[in-house]
Amino acid sequence: MEKLFRWLFGKQQPPAEKATDIASTAPLTEEQLKAIVSSQSPQFDLPQLVAAAGQSVGKQRELNEDSLLAVTTTMAGNSGNLPFGLYIVADGMGGHQFGEVASNAAVRTVAGYVIKKFLPYLFQIKADLLEESFQEIMAAAVNEAQRVIQREAPGSGTTLTAALVLGQQVTIAHVGDSRAYFVYPDGRIETVTRDHSLVQRLQELGHITAEEAENYPHRNVLYKALGQGDILDPEIFTLAFPQLGTLLICSDGLWGVVAEQDIIRAVNESPNLQRACQNLVTAANAAGGPDNISVILAQLIG
Amino acid sequence: MKSPTFAVVKPSRANYNLLHLGENPLETRLFPELSDDDKGDEAAVAKSQLQAGVMLAKRYLIQEVVGLGGMGSVYRARDMHFPNVNKLVAVKEMINSAPDPLVRQTIVQNFEREANLLATLHHPSIPKIYDYFTLESRSYLVLEFIHGKDMEAVINDTNGFLPEEQVLGWAIALCDVLDYLHKHKPDPIIFRDMKPSNVMISSNGEVILVDFGIAKAFQSGIKGTMIGTEGYSPPEQYRGEATQAADIYSLGATLHHALTRRDPRLEPPFSFAERPIRRINPAVSPELEAIVNRALEYDPANRFKSAAEMKDALTAAARKTGLLSRLGPIVSPVKNEGIKPLWKFKCEDEIRGTPGIHQGTLFIGSYDNNLYALNAADGKFEWKYPTDGGIVSRPLVVEGNVIFGSEDKRLHVVSARSGKVVWTYYTDGPIRSSPTIAEGHLFFGSDDHYLHAVNFNTGRMAWRFESADAIRSTPFVMTDMVYFGVESGDYYAVNFRGELKWRFRSKRAVTASTVGTGQAIYFTSVDATLYALDPRNGWVIWRFRLGKSSISTPCIAEDLIIVGAADGFIYAVEAKSAKEVWRFRTEHQVNGSPVLYKDSIYCGSVDGSLYCLEYRTGRLRWKFGTEGAITGTPLVYDDVVYFGSTDHHVYALLA
Lengths: 302, 655
Known about the structure:
The complex is a heterodimer.
Chain A: H1 2-11, H2 19-25, H3 30-40, E1 48-56, E2 66-73, E3 84-91, H4 99-122, H5 134-152, E4 160-166, E5 169-175, E6 179-183, E7 189-191, H6 198-204, H7 210-214, E8 235-240, E9 246-250, H8 252-255, H9 260-269, H10 273-286, E10 293-301
Antiparallel strand pairs in A: 1-10, 2-3, 3-4, 4-5, 5-8, 6-7, 6-9, 9-10
Chain B: H1 13-20, H2 41-48, E1 55-56, E2 60-69, E3 72-79, E4 88-95, H3 101-119, E5 129-135, E6 138-144, E7 148-150, H4 151-157, H5 164-182, E8 199-202, E9 207-209, H6 214-221, H7 235-238, H8 244-260, H9 277-280, H10 286-295, H11 307-321, E10 343-346, E11 356-358, E12 361-365, E13 370-375, E14 381-386, E15 396-398, E16 401-405, E17 410-415, E18 421-426, E19 436-438, E20 441-445, E21 450-455, E22 461-466, E23 476-478, E24 481-485, E25 490-495, E26 500-505, E27 515-516, E28 521-525, E29 529-533, E30 540-545, E31 555-557, E32 560-564, E33 569-574, E34 580-585, E35 595-597, E36 600-604, E37 609-614, E38 620-625, E39 635-637, E40 640-644, E41 649-654
Antiparallel strand pairs in B: 1-2, 2-3, 3-4, 4-6, 5-6, 7-8, 8-9, 10-41, 11-12, 12-13, 13-14, 15-16, 16-17, 17-18, 19-20, 20-21, 21-22, 23-24, 24-25, 25-26, 27-28, 28-29, 29-30, 31-32, 32-33, 33-34, 35-36, 36-37, 37-38, 39-40, 40-41
Helix pairs in contact in B: 1-6, 5-8, 5-11, 8-10, 10-11
């Protein structure tokens, strides 16, 4: 316990200039600490993945064009314990262009492809190692989804942010402007994906400032989306699963509406992941709920 | 998806808006005959396509599908009105399945209006239109069939870079046709979709602009949140503006792709400035690079004012460089740039191994069977220790002792100060693997197939682990595990008790050693792959395909993995994504391993040179030539780089 305190408050002191932010967000009260300790305690004998999800159509739309999927498996025994998880958020585009068909096809196709690939390797008594790499499997799954969308709903498109967790590796495939974050219990948040949006690109190039970006008229223009274009080049990369942290995947209905510090607080201060997801959805709706909201949280505990 | 022979003029801006605007949803469902469920999808696509042998409009005999578009297929057909000759035409189909009758009507009207417009265009780089008609929900355009392939296919099918004069010739022709379209009366025609796959190169070498993209325009009109063709489009086109300057930008993007072979659809938008043409393809003249750069200016006002102006610039450049009259320029090799070694030392035979350093003394083995101790400051000979075989392993210096294997099958431990033997250890095969020390034990492989774990103090074997083949790689130790590959292609993770934890199989020998972080281990194989594996369980995180086999050990340079291969390249790939960041070509195989020192990469090549590259960009800082191959790994210490060459010399250079 002492170790946890030291870890929480010792090393990772947030920078001083953000003191005002910390005042409202730092988990310093006894209650908050308890919440963290109860949800983050590293004292689990069995290392395992835990996950939860939340979704809402929002307050201003009639149709939910978001799709999400969360698969978590736990296997324990004498012959190795390899947590396996697959978490996907897809945000269909275009209002009237079958965005919901695209996002649904994306989520199901990617999940089906990946699980089919891993099935014989994970759930057979004696199995060799899979020859293909995580990244190749994810790339093939995304390409398959691209094909299915172009066939099932030509002209439509969707974002896709998919995280494959195997052991302590998280491999992310990403197209569009849904996001994956690592949220740490000390209040840090790390955006691990990059939006494929025009506004983001113009900002990267220094053509518009962050403030101008806030009010940019074409905020919703993506330069890359699943189902669109003849070459799809998803970003695929592998990171170490955040130690003691939380993997968060969400559509812009959450990150575009709820401030980062409120996201961090909801993740770190809720008693469990299910409640955290619901709190995030509630926060987005409380802020007007202009768009569909989807969120998945996952932790590697133990 | 290419549509090589289709040509329709896009709707004008007004029509584009007609489709694009209007918040009332267009309930367009393309291919309504396709159901949402998965079954029979291939059949459904096939069903919507015309089969070979079908006679269309009692005139066009469908031969085969030559392309697929967003709203239908492109066919090659024979025009049966010319029964005595085999007149081929391209038939582009557009399936109009909008349920709303008004929308349907608008689509058909646009189609016909634009087909009529196309019929008025006469330019050698625009395909002729012969006919158009609508049958129920499908509209057809009949166009000139072009024998040849599109520029994208030409780029992809070419090994290496296209000759500059060829690209320049295309550029001039494309400027000419853009100029023609832009000067069209009463309204200028903006092509909007200039990219290599929309440029056909006929078998006679003619350049023909295809796919004026009516289908594309229809599509993007109803997309809602997506506008523009990724990669080739200028910034303003994402905002819905299409002007002559946009076509010039896209032409610049097309030329950039053709000259560099870097597909802009695989790169972030507007990132051409980050990939200067001549850095990727130094054979391109500065004149042509400058023209392409100007076409790619972010601000439309800074680009060429017109396609005609760009064409003038291109022809001027062609005249100045004499490009149109001569073949590709000759690249002059970089010279030694007057680099003088601090010192060099001659052994009696080749040096293929890697040096070690300890307290001002450099240790290096040679094929003359000796291990040499040299003064690192001036290269003066201190002592040599003879073995009965060549030494290719890297000497390890621990507690005043130098440890190295020899092809005489022994591991030798000698005093670093005096060169006197402390102990030796016998294996049953030549030792080419370099020793690693951890927890008081030396780990090394031998051609006898065993990984040996030897107590450093006593020289006694703690255990040995039998692998499938000779071990030439250096064992890599991380968090109580030993990782190594063997000549059969097997790769092992063994714990400190000599127990196998997991095993992986590559297709060919793993001669290179492993490097790693807590998250991943990296090694190359003769199967021409750079692998990233999960060190805990051996699952493959990613594989990166090298041009040829590799026995070079990777080097971790922050977020990059840098490694050489037998194709002569030094590659830098991003550790998390396996994306290539840069590659640098040497003149021969790269068998040694790159090392990072400060912000430079040092790497030898069989071409005889030691290269110093800026590690972020792969830009050459300098190179130093020797008279033999450099197959070992350089050692950089205190701003001095030490390495051996098969010209028998050890060199010391200022880093």
